[in-house]
Amino acid sequence: MTSSFAKVAEYSAKHPKPADITFAYGTAGFRTIGETLESTVFRCGLLAALRSQSKQGRVIGIMITASHNHERDNGVKLVDPMGEMLQQSWEGYCTEIANASTDAQVVEILSEIAEAEGIDLSVTPKVAYARDTRPSGPLLLSALQDGLAAMDVDATNYGIVTTPQLHFFVRCLNTKGSPAEYGEANEAGYYRKYGQAFLRLVEGKPLPSTLYIDAANGVGAPQVRKLAEAINSPYFSIDVRNTDTETLGKLNIDCGADYVKSNQHQPRGIMLTPSGRYCSFDGDADRILYYYSDECGTFHLLDGDKISTLVATYLRDLVATAGIEDLDVGVVQTAYANGSSTRYIKDTLKLHTVFAMTGVKYLHHEAEKMNIGVYFEANGHGTVLFNASAVNTLREFVPASPAQAEAVERLWALRDLINESVGDAMADMLLVEAILICKGWTLAQWDESYTDLPSRLLKVVVNDRNIFKTTNAEQTLTSPHGLQEVVDELTAKFPKGRSFVRPSGTEDAVRVYAEAATRGECDQLAYSVAGAVFDKAGGRGERPAEFI
Ligand code: 16G
Ligand code: MG
Questions:
Q1: pLDDT digits (tens, 9 = 90+) for 324-348
Q2: Total domain count for the chain?
Q3: Neighbouring-strand partners of residue 290
Q4: Ligand 2 center from residue 24 Cα (angstroms)
Q5: What is the Cβ-side half-sphere exposure of residue 264, based on CA atoms within 13 angstroms?
Q6: N or C: which end of the chain has fewer CB within 10 A?
Q7: Contact (Cβ atoms closer than 8 angstroms) between residue 267 and residue 259
Q8: How large is the average pLDDT for residues 402-416?
Q9: Which atom of ligand 1 is nearest to the CA of 507?
């Protein structure tokens, strides 16, 4: 068996593991200082090859990106054949191989995985890969290419694209020629598929005003311009800001979806005017948020929850107009969803809603269980899934009137407009634009559906975040002992109070979320919970400032 790995040790010697670092495959893959990731990315190449062989030579994706994080960081994640996140049971293999201390051990681990998974090593492995615009990208890319060469992989380099584009290509490659054929596995195919679906939905409706896009000085900037060129229609008139992917020190700085969500403020480079329409992508363009300013100059954010309710409402209404009875629309949220949104979904929309743990893979799996599952994190990451039974129902449904036929046709067009492999800022933007155009809505009209409760997200640095264990979709702490009771006591003091504490999956810190009826009460709750975490669970550095 080892002969299949004959070249691995030699290549591996070119990419030694830094002795003092322990790597972990987290919520969205490995993520840390870019320069330290060479060995990890090389080894991900090896593992992707093995994963492909375990899937009878289906294409596995590898994306080199650190999303909204600082430019000095980078990361790598594997993409499974349908464009979804890597199966969780393989995440442990990734961590194991990333931490092997010698080249011989790397080979040994590969052999062990091959044996444990019963992998046929004679299968030619196939991998598709890409990176974002980070300065450490080229170094990591060449480490990856060594990993692929060491395993004789049939590899396709997609260059610099958004994370969701790479997911899309992987799904297209693996469904080519099948009934589930997803599209053409290249950039032009991506723009064509989503552009055409968008135009099918909006043609004949009144034209929208220009949409200002903050591209976070990341890979979304060139890509969204290419999308606009391909669509080439006044229905998609955009003005892209924060497009500098060349100058060091600009990526995600004072701009991008994460900045806008955390600061509840417009990014640098965008001046808000009343009636203007604005959105922000994150650094790898898998998240999107909308915002606007009212006549008084007050900033209003339309986050992932607002996108999710907009989309769910539209889908629910179309299903009703079509007269299809056995097609349920459901919504998946995380604990970060604003309480007002959850109440709105349950009480006003009367749709089924569930909570999943933070991280796309968890939401995705819950949404797969629904007929039409809309999932979004409040931070703007999400998409919609039509499961097999929904597709069958749609296919077999016989409309009884032209209005019903039109609603069915719109449901098909919406499905084509959605990137079902993963949340996608560009596809989600077209989806929101299409719905707003069809409804003839401004951002303020969209915003009227419900009013967010004031919320606050704080970070507490502790000695060991691994002592924090949660249950109930991360809303309840089971460890450290007694801390949840303190959170409950504090929360009970505030009308509409809600707070939870969870260990971050991407950073060495603990997150504290709180919401309450007023801004003042929300902040009091957030800081008192953060203070309790700091005092009772080994806080490090500065104690979260008390709210006065
Ligand atoms: C990752 C997740 C994102 C999640 C965030 C939470 C993916 C592709 N990305 O960026 O969805 O919101 O982690 O970070 O799953 P945290 O665990 O540090 O709070
Ligand atoms: Mg991202």
A1: 998 999 999 999 999 999 999 999 9
A2: 4
A3: 279, 302
A4: 18
A5: 10
A6: C
A7: yes
A8: 97
A9: 18
